[in-house]
């Protein structure tokens, strides 16, 4: 992709992970999801054994993941909070072992991110081998997340969320969902920059499914070129979200059977819109979708 093309102003951007190889955004990048929680909405309890978790991370790297996003607290609707110490207990050892395994298997270029809103957890993860922070509260819950990212020169993803996970799906309402999210993310980017984070190292995520109805999610997806046009790297996370099941006719939005086809469709649409980062459960499928969409859109 030509870095100067208007449909992807972040094509020339790159992430500099502490002590790790640099990752450019000149093609779509996949962030594989590794939930170390008993209550995540689609894979809770599957990877609570260290060896199983590490193998899952390695498999995702083999399938084409450029990052592995490790989380120790569920953010599904209605989820209860988990203490920082318990998150560390769940994640730090896995991150250390996964980093060692990835390096040993020739995947030094695959970065690890920590999915948390708490600086104490993030610091332990960085010490264990993570290189990126993924904060669904966008640094509002713990401003120390922003200063930590600056201190450690780590990229950070800031997401929009309406309310809190426990109650975010209780009749969310917006006057203009696209504009309000854009304004929120712009403010949080400036907060990160003010804390010392390099602007190019701040990723924005409009937060599909986090306090949004089906109609809100569709409006956000249609507006992805608008978020890309801000110049900040954009992360799209639709993977296995209930709205995809609802689009298939399930009013309850159950994830079984997995709406993986819908996820792959949004990945392809995101690539066409210039989105560089995709957070997914099904890495192989979405890797195929991204490659095909990239070839069609960019030649």
Automatic annotation (TrEMBL):
> What sort of enzyme, by top EC class, is this?
transferase
Q: Where is the Pterin-binding domain?
A: 28-292
Q: Which Gene3D superfamilies does the protein's record reference? A: Dihydropteroate synthase-like
Annotated keywords: Folate biosynthesis, Magnesium, Metal-binding, Transferase
Listed GO biological process terms: folic acid biosynthetic process; tetrahydrofolate biosynthetic process
Classification via InterPro entries: DHP_synth-like, DHP_synth_dom, Dihydropteroate_synth-like_sf, Pterin-binding_dom
Give one Pfam hit by family name. Pterin_bind
Task: Give me the Gene Ontology terms describing cellular component.
Answer: cytosol
GO function terms (MF aspect): dihydropteroate synthase activity; metal ion binding
Source species, domain of life: Bacteria
The signal sequence is: none
Q: What is its EC number?
A: 2.5.1.15
Report which reactions are catalysed by this protein: (7,8-dihydropterin-6-yl)methyl diphosphate + 4-aminobenzoate = 7,8-dihydropteroate + diphosphate
Q: Which cofactor does it need?
A: Mg(2+)
| Pathway stated in the Swiss-Prot or TrEMBL entry | Cofactor biosynthesis; tetrahydrofolate biosynthesis; 7,8-dihydrofolate from 2-amino-4-hydroxy-6-hydroxymethyl-7,8-dihydropteridine diphosphate and 4-aminobenzoate: step 1/2
Its function, per the record, reads: Catalyzes the condensation of para-aminobenzoate (pABA) with 6-hydroxymethyl-7,8-dihydropterin diphosphate (DHPt-PP) to form 7,8-dihydropteroate (H2Pte), the immediate precursor of folate derivatives.
For this protein, the record's PANTHER family field holds:
FOLATE SYNTHESIS PROTEINS, FOLIC ACID SYNTHESIS PROTEIN FOL1
Q: Which family is annotated? A: Belongs to the DHPS family.
Q: What is this protein called?
A: Dihydropteroate synthase
The record lists the organism as Algisphaera agarilytica
